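Field log, afternoon session.

UNIT: design team B
ACTIVITY: writing a sequence onto a fixed backbone
BACKBONE:
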């Protein structure tokens, strides 16, 4: 088993295609081809986490936050970032970060927050748009089923809870190859007319290369005619934040007590909301001030996130804004990744880091 096998499995859960532009995810140190010894899962990769990996003979650290976020001009170990990186490199430890790929994933960071709060009817708060792709190709009738099945197997026609979705129309196609062509149907310099089906399927963009390869391998033509377009539609299963409902409404003091207990935080900073009861709750792990408007538009009674500034709370009159702390909002991510990896790589040590990485102390 190689480190690349773990990475490939992580990118099924959280494809790097959906990383935000500002982010720095993926393999930060180490080589994909290195043989796997063990995996240590953490929210933040600090020097004490690398020490724990060394102690437990784990040569892959799977971290939520990337320890390298902006460019490094040198590797002198004179701050916490460089000390961590240098120690990892010296000890042949690979560091892989998921960050916003997992933020945007179905069943990712915010989904886990919602489940810890016991919410139901959970949906993505800010679904990504201009994401879904559509493939249209033209296939001779006698090869149609072969091509369609190959595309299904590659992941085309699968969105959300449905798979093997396609649309076809019957028509007539024509083509004429020149003297350098090698047509599989008909002859060179001869115009061929035959029955074809137009086949259309939607797919997610991280599968595009695989789907194109399946099309080329299964299609009988020497030169395959196809087009790929991007749809305006939003896609409910990829995006930031979530919104869901409590089983029963809670008055604000009880809701705040529940929030404080679930997130194990020293304090919940909340707005002076006009709300008296809370039923519909929006959540977003990490710094979530940018999504206050989305929570309001979605009709949330409360919004749980982190890193709200003084002036952000002025927006919390028609919604109860709850800042539980950055670490606290994302703490369950470590458990999420640990459970996911342990199920797949049961023959290897998959450990949850015990080292403290929360830089905030409550007095």
């Amino acid at each position: 088993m190689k480190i690349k096998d773990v990475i490939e499995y992580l990118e099924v859960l959280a494809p790097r295609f959906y990383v935000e532009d500002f982010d720095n995810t993926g393999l930060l140190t180490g080589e994909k081809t290195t043989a796997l010894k063990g995996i240590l899962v953490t929210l933040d990769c600090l020097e004490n986490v690398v020490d724990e990996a060394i102690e437990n003979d784990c040569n892959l650290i799977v971290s939520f936050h990337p320890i390298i976020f902006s460019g490094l001009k040198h590797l002198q170990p004179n701050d916490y970032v460089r000390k961590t990186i240098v120690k990892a490199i010296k000890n042949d430890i690979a560091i892989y970060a998921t960050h916003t790929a997992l933020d945007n994933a179905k069943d990712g960071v915010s989904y886990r927050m919602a489940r810890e709060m016991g919410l139901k009817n959970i949906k993505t708060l800010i679904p990504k748009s201009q994401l879904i792709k559509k493939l249209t190709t033209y296939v001779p009738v006698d090869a149609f089923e072969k091509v369609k099945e190959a595309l299904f197997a590659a992941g085309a026609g699968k969105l959300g809870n449905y798979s093997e979705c396609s649309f076809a129309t019957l028509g007539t196609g024509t083509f004429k190859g020149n003297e350098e062509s090698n047509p599989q149907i008909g002859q060179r310099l001869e115009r061929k007319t035959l029955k074809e089906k137009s086949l259309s399927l939607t797919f997610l963009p991280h599968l595009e290369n695989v789907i194109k390869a399946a099309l080329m391998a299964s299609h009988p033509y020497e030169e395959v005619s196809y087009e790929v377009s991007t749809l305006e539609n939003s896609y409910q299963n990829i995006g930031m934040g979530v919104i869901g409902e409590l089983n029963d409404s809670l008055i604000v003091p009880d809701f705040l007590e529940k929030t404080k207990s679930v997130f194990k935080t020293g304090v919940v900073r909340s707005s002076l909301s006009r709300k008296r009861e809370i039923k519909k709750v929006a959540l977003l792990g990490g710094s979530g001030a940018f999504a206050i408007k989305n929570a309001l538009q979605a009709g949330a009674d409360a919004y749980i996130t982190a890193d709200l500034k003084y002036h952000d709370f002025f927006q919390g009159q028609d919604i109860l804004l709850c800042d539980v702390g950055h670490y606290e909002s994302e703490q369950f991510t470590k458990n999420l990744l640990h459970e996911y990896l342990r199920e797949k790589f049961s023959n290897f040590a998959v450990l949850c880091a015990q080292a403290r990485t929360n830089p905030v102390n409550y007095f």
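LOG NOTE: DSSP finds eleven helices and 15 strands in the chain.
NEXT ACTIVITY: expression trials, pending approval
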